[in-house]
C-alpha cells in the first residue's frame, strides 16, 4: 500500500521498546524537532551487556521503524557489539528504505552511540567503538542545525556504494 | 493493511473526474476521434467540440472564448506566461515580481529566468499568507515587466487581493499574471472585473481530466508563440489538440459555473465543521493561515509534538488520503516553502497536515476521519520524544 515494505510498516505501527527506562545506565538523544526527527534512547547495562533499551522518537514512519528495530538489535549485545552496528545494518534489518528515507536510519545509529557514550562517561570506561565520537558533533546552528545538503550527500554516497 | 473505507481529503492535489464529464468525453475517444484540423465532417465535429469547450472555460472566468488557449497543464500555462513575457519584454526591462509562496511551476520558471540574467523579487507574506500591496508597489521599478502573484495558495488556501494587485500593475504599466489553478471553481473569478492580463488554469482540479490546462491571455496582450507547428490555438500553441481533455475540461467548467455558489457553501461548511471538531477533540493543534479569504475546502493544521509523514501513514492505513508540509514527505528534504514564508517554525511545519474537502466529501467521512485522527495523534504522541511537558 505504501512506499515502505511490510517489515518497516510493522515496526512503525507496532514499535518495540517504546518508552523510557527508570534509572537508566546511559541515555542519549540525537536529532531535533526542528530538523523533523529526534530520538531519545535509554539503556540498562550489566557486565558490559545491554540488558534493556527503550526509545522515544519524534519523526516520520521510517525514523520510528528504525528506532524500533535498532533497539531490538542492541538488546542482549555487548557494548562493543552494539557499537559495531552501523546504519547499514539497521537498514538491512529493516529490509531497506526508499532512498529519500535512508537518512532516517542514521538517527538510531547516532542515538545508540550517544547513550553508550553517556554510560561510558558515567562509569569511566573507554570503548574502541566510541573513538572520535562526539554526541553533539552534528548539532550546529547552521541551517537550523539540520544539514539537509549533508543528508543528501550521505544519501547519494550510500546509493553509489550499494 | 488495506482499508475498505476510502476517504479522499486531498482535493487540492487533484479531483476525481465527474461522471457527467467522463460521459461527455467518451465519444471523442472512439467515434468522434477526428483531427480538429481536418476539413471533413468528423474533423469539423471535433473542431466544434473544442469551440464549445472554449466557450465554457471562458464563461467560468468571464473571458471571451478567443482569449482562452489550451495547454497541457497549469504548469505549462505558468511557464508560458512568465518566461515568454519576460523574453518578449526584455528590451524594456529584465525585472519580475512574484511571491515566496508560489507553486513550483512559477518559482522554477523564475529561477530559470534568473539563470538567464533576469532579476526576480520574491515578495514575502504575513503570518496569514497575504502579500503586502505597499511592498508590491514599492518593489516595482522602471525595468519591471511582469507581476505574477497566485490567486489562491495550494497549501494554506489564502486568496490574494487580486483586483488590487491588478490595479497597481496597470497603474505602473506592468503586466499581471495570476496562477488560478487552485482558485478556479472555488472562487468567483471575473477576469474583466479583476483586470488581470493572464491567468493559468487546470482541468483536473475542477473534476475534469488530468493533462489539460489553459492560459487566459487578455485580448491586447501580445504573448509570443509558445509552441511552433500546425497553427493550433490561433498559432500560439501548436500541436494536435488534446480533444478528450479539452472536452472534459469544458464540461467540468460548465458544471463548476452552474454549481459554484452551492459548492462554495458546502465546502465552507464542511471545512469549518472539521476545523472546529479538530480543535475540540485534539489538544495542541494550530490552524495555519487565515480562515477568512481562504479557499473553501482548505484546512491546514499542525498537530504539535508529532511528525506529519508518520501521521499521514497512519491515516492512509485507515483509508484516509491527506498531504503534509513536512520535510520528510518531500523529495528535497526541506519543509514546506509556503509555511516557512508564513513564518511558521520548522518543528511546527513538520507536524502540518493539509486536509482539503470537495464535492464528494460527506460529514460522515469527516466524522470517521476525526476518530482516526484523534487515535493516530494520541498514538504518535505516546511514541514521541517531545511533548507539551518536555517542550520543544
Write the layout of secondary structure elements.
The complex is a heterodimer of chains A (162) and B (392).
Chain A: H1 6-13, E1 26-32, E2 37-46, E3 49-58, H2 61-74, H3 79-83, H4 87-93, H5 103-123, H6 148-161
Antiparallel strand pairs in A: 1-2, 2-3
Chain B: E1 7-8, H1 19-25, H2 41-61, E2 68-71, H3 74-88, E3 95-99, H4 104-115, E4 119-123, H5 133-139, E5 144-148, H6 162-171, E6 175-179, H7 191-194, E7 198-202, E8 213-217, H8 243-281, E9 285-287, E10 298-303, H9 308-317, E11 320-321, E12 323-324, H10 337-341, H11 346-349, E13 352-356, H12 363-383
Parallel strand pairs in B: 1-11, 3-4, 3-5, 5-6, 6-7
Antiparallel strand pairs in B: 2-8, 7-8, 9-10, 10-13, 12-13
Helix pairs in contact in B: 1-8, 2-8, 3-4, 8-12, 9-12
Supply database-style keywords.
heterodimer; A: 162 residues; alpha+beta; Sufe protein. Chain: A; 3-stranded antiparallel β-sheet; 6 helices; 3 strands; 17% strand; globular; disordered C terminus; B: 392 residues; alpha/beta; Aspartate Aminotransferase, domain 1; Aspartate Aminotransferase, domain 2; 2 domains; 7-stranded mixed β-sheet; 13 strands; 40% helix
Descriptive notes:
The complex is a heterodimer of chains A (162) and B (392). With 162 residues, chain A is of the alpha+beta class. Chain A has a single domain (6-161), classed as Sufe protein. Chain: A. Helix content of chain A is 43%, strand content 17%. Chain A contains six helices and three strands. Chain A has a three-stranded antiparallel sheet. Chain A is globular and about 45 Å long. Chain A starts with 5 loop residues before the first helix and ends with a helix. By secondary structure, chain B is α/β, with parallel strands linked by helices. Chain B has twelve helices and 13 strands. Chain B has helices at residues 19-25, 41-61, 74-88, 104-115, 133-139, 162-171, 191-194, 243-281, 308-317, 337-341, 346-349, 363-383, and strands at 7-8, 68-71, 95-99, 119-123, 144-148, 175-179, 198-202, 213-217, 285-287, 298-303, 320-321, 323-324, 352-356. Chain B has a seven-stranded mixed sheet, with helices on both faces. A four-stranded antiparallel sheet of chain B has the order 9-10-13-12, covered by helices on one side. In chain B, strand 6, helix 7 and strand 7 (198-202) form a beta-alpha-beta unit. Chain B is globular, with a radius of gyration of 22 Å. The model of chain B has no long low-confidence stretch (mean pLDDT 96). Classes of the chains: A alpha+beta (162), B alpha/beta (392). At the A-B interface, helix 1, strand 2, strand 3, helix 2 and helix 6 of A face helix 9 of B.
Amino acid at each position: 500500500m505504501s512506499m515502505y515494505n511490510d517489515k518497516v510498516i510493522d515496526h512503525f505501527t507496532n514499535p518495540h521498546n517504546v518508552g523510557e527506562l527508570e534509572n537508566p545506565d546511559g541515555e542519549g538523544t540525537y536529532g531535533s524537532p526542528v530538523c523533523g526527527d529526534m530520538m531519545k534512547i535509554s539503556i540498562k547495562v550489566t557486565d558490559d551487556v545491554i540488558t534493556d533499551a527503550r526509545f522515544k522518537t519524534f519523526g516520520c514512519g521510517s525514523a520510528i521503524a528504525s528506532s524500533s528495530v535498532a533497539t531490538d538489535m542492541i538488546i542482549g549485545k555487548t557494548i562493543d557489539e552494539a557499537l559495531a552496528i552501523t546504519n547499514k545494518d539497521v537498514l538491512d534489518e529493516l529490509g531497506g528504505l526508499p532512498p529519500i528515507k535512508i537518512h532516517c536510519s542514521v538517527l538510531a545509529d547516532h542515538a545508540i552511540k550517544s547513550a553508550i557514550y553517556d554510560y561510558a562517561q558515567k562509569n569511566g570506561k573507554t570503548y574502541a567503538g566510541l573513538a572520535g565520537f562526539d554526541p553533539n558533533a552534528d548539532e550546529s546552528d547552521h541551517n537550523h542545525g539540520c544539514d539537509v545538503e549533508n543528508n543528501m550527500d550521505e544519501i547519494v554516497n550510500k546509493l553509489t556504494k550499494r | 493493511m488495506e482499508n475498505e473505507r476510502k476517504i479522499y481529503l486531498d482535493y487540492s492535489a487533484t479531483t476525481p473526474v465527474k461522471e457527467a464529464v467522463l460521459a461527455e468525453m467518451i465519444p471523442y475517444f472512439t467515434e468522434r476521434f477526428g483531427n480538429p484540423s481536418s476539413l471533413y465532417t468528423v474533423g469539423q465535429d471535433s473542431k466544434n467540440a473544442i469551440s464549445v469547450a472554449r466557450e465554457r472555460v471562458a464563461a467560468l472566468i468571464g473571458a471571451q472564448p478567443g482569449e482562452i488557449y489550451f495547454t497541457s497543464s497549469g504548469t505549462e500555462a505558468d511557464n508560458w506566461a512568465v518566461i515568454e513575457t519576460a523574453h518578449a519584454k526584455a528590451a524594456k526591462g529584465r525585472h519580475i515580481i512574484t511571491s515566496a509562496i508560489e507553486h513550483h511551476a512559477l518559482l522554477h520558471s523564475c529561477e530559470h529566468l534568473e539563470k538567464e540574467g533576469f532579476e526576480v523579487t520574491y515578495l514575502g507574506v504575513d503570518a496569514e499568507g497575504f502579500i503586502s500591496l505597499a511592498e508590491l508597489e514599492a518593489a516595482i521599478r522602471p525595468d519591471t515587466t511582469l507581476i505574477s502573484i497566485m490567486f489562491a495558495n495550494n497549501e494554506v488556501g489564502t486568496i490574494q487581493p487580486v483586483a488590487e494587485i491588478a490595479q497597481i500593475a496597470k497603474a505602473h504599466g506592468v503586466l499581471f499574471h495570476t496562477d488560478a489553478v487552485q482558485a478556479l471553481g472555488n472562487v468567483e473569478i471575473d477576469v474583466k472585473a479583476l483586470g488581470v492580463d493572464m491567468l493559468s488554469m487546470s482541468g483536473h482540479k475542477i473534476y475534469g481530466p488530468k493533462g489539460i490546462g489553459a492560459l487566459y491571455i487578455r485580448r491586447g496582450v501580445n504573448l509570443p508563440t509558445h509552441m511552433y507547428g500546425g497553427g493550433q490555438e490561433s498559432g500560439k500553441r501548436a500541436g494536435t489538440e488534446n480533444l478528450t481533455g479539452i472536452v472534459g475540461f469544458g464540461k467540468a467548467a460548465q458544471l463548476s459555473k452552474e454549481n459554484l455558489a452551492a459548492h462554495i457553501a458546502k465546502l465552507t461548511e464542511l471545512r469549518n465543521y472539521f476545523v472546529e471538531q479538530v480543535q475540540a477533540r485534539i489538544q495542541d493543534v494550530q490552524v495555519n493561515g487565515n480562515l477568512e479569504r481562504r479557499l473553501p475546502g482548505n484546512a491546514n493544521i499542525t498537530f504539535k509534538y508529532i511528525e506529519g509523514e508518520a501521521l499521514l501513514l497512519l491515516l492512509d492505513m485507515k483509508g484516509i488520503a491527506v498531504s503534509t508540509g513536512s520535510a520528510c514527505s518531500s523529495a528535497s528534504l526541506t519543509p514546506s516553502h509556503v509555511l516557512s514564508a508564513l513564518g511558521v517554525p520548522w518543528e511546527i511545519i513538520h507536524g502540518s497536515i493539509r486536509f482539503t474537502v470537495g464535492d464528494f466529501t460527506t460529514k460522515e467521512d469527516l466524522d470517521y476521519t476525526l476518530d482516526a485522527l484523534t487515535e493516530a495523534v494520541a498514538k504518535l504522541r505516546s511514541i514521541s520524544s517531545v511533548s507539551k511537558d518536555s517542550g520543544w
